[in-house]
Amino acid sequence: MSGGRGTGPAALRDKAAALDATDPLRHCRDLYVPADGLVAYLDGNSLGRPLRATAQRITNLVAHDWGTRLIRSWDEQWMDLPLRLGDRIGEVCLGAAAGQTVVGDSTTVMLYKLLRAAVAAAGPERPEIVVDTENFPTDRYVAQGIADETGARLVWVEPDPAKGVTPDLVEAALTERTGVVLLSHVAYKSAWIADLPEITRRLHDAGALVLWDLCHSVGVVPSDLDEHDVDLAVGCTYKFLGGGPGAPAFGYVAARHHERLRQPIQGWMGHAEPFVMGPDYRPGAGMRGFISGTPPVLGMVGIEDTVDLIESVGLDAVRDKAARLGRFVIESVDELLAGHGVRVTSPLVDEQRGGHVTLAHPRFREVYRELWAQDVVPDFREPDGIRLGLSPLSTSYAEVAEALVRIEALLSAG
Ligand SMILES: *Cc1c(COP(=O)(O)O)cnc(C)c1O
Questions:
Q1: What Enzyme Commission number does this protein have (predicted)?
Q2: Class for domain 79-310, per CATH?
């Protein structure tokens, strides 16, 4: 089924070896904690692999910062960690000047805080929130909850699931009553890259605010938030930023909105003077006011290692390898899997596709289970999608080739 010489498994493995040999990021793979017995990890866009430096940093944290310095570490380094780390993510990954990004809370909670703040700022004259049916569940659920809470009305955009939101689709949903538009930069299923600059421009022309979810773009696709006048953004740090399971989110609020936006979870850590412990809440200046409670330090420290690594190789090089890995998948599916009826349900054009490729086949649920049993680890997406996460810093072409060869073997076995 897989054709003759030149298109079979051996040829695919050879091609992968050649691509790995000339990959400018190949040295990065040795920086990760080795995973014994793992054949291929293609889920780094759900949980990124840990760097050795992160393992060391967490060990040091327990032994020194926590173990020895104890409570003194709050003064010495942790109080400012949410802002300092936010600035690093902003600088390296978001194109955001300092003072606009903060780390803390889960993505879900940060999303709630920023969307709720934006809805309040938009005011009663603009009670419509534009959301799309292909966005990640949390984003849709949070928006539904805020609509229930505030009386705002949700206006649904329905994109093609194999693609994503386009400027025209979004524009068609805008009215003079649109307050906030919530969209993902890279779609979690299809990997479609929304045209962030153009969509932001058009909704600003209509007088609305935008909240971009960068969960699947941060650390792999540049967003250049300042340059494109983005109002608000949130994103994950445990996907492409390698922060580890449960690592907190980041939130970005453009400086021009700091005075106007008030987030709803008023906690002591976001207070202008947390240790005065006074009777009333008074938000801290700038992004300090977007902090609620004690930051999850253990989950935060590892993020910095991946951000440092991205800075050292350049985000554009990471982006470039993501595109190449995706192209390799698409070409290989053509050669090896199309005959089995496997379809690519991600954009075929590199410029429109983020850091993963989703394939579809009616038998993929069982194929996926079997792959996991073989230590080949992609993601499954209902109803019939295998999502191949392509983390450019840690993923080799050989891993990708091996996964595709195994998929082919499993489909051939019938
Ligand atoms: C991964 C992801 C989330 C996860 O939210 P958590 O609160 O961290 O569980 C939210 N939104 C999108 C678009 C995601 O891809």
A1: 3.7.1.3
A2: alpha beta
The length of the chain, given as a count of residues: 414
Categorize the per-residue pLDDT at 220 as very low, low, confident or very high, splitting at 50, 70 and 90. very high
Q: From CA 360, how far away is CA 29, in angstroms rounded? A: 28
| Contact between residue 165 and residue 189 where contact means Cβ atoms under 8 Å apart | no
Q: How far apart are CA 50 and CA 260, in angstroms?
A: 38
Q: Which residues are catalytic?
A: 136, 213, 238-239, 387
What is the distance, to the nearest Å, from the Cα of residue 399 to the centroid of all Cα atoms in its chain?
Answer: 22
Report domain extents, the chain. Answer: 9-54+314-413, 79-310
Shortest-distance atom of ligand 1 to CA 136: 13
Tokens of 158: 């329905």
Indicate if ligand 1 lies below 6 Å from the C-beta of 184.
Answer: yes
Q: Is the minimum distance from the CB of 379 to ligand 1 under 6 angstroms? A: no
Q: Is the pTM of this model over 0.85?
A: yes
Distance in angstroms between the alpha carbons of the first and the last residue of the chain: 12
| pLDDT tens-digit map of 378-396 | 999 989 999 999 999 999 9
Ligand 1 proximity of 136 Cβ (cutoff 6 Å): yes
Residue owning tokens 């977007």 = 290
Does the structure show a pLDDT above 80 at 67?
yes
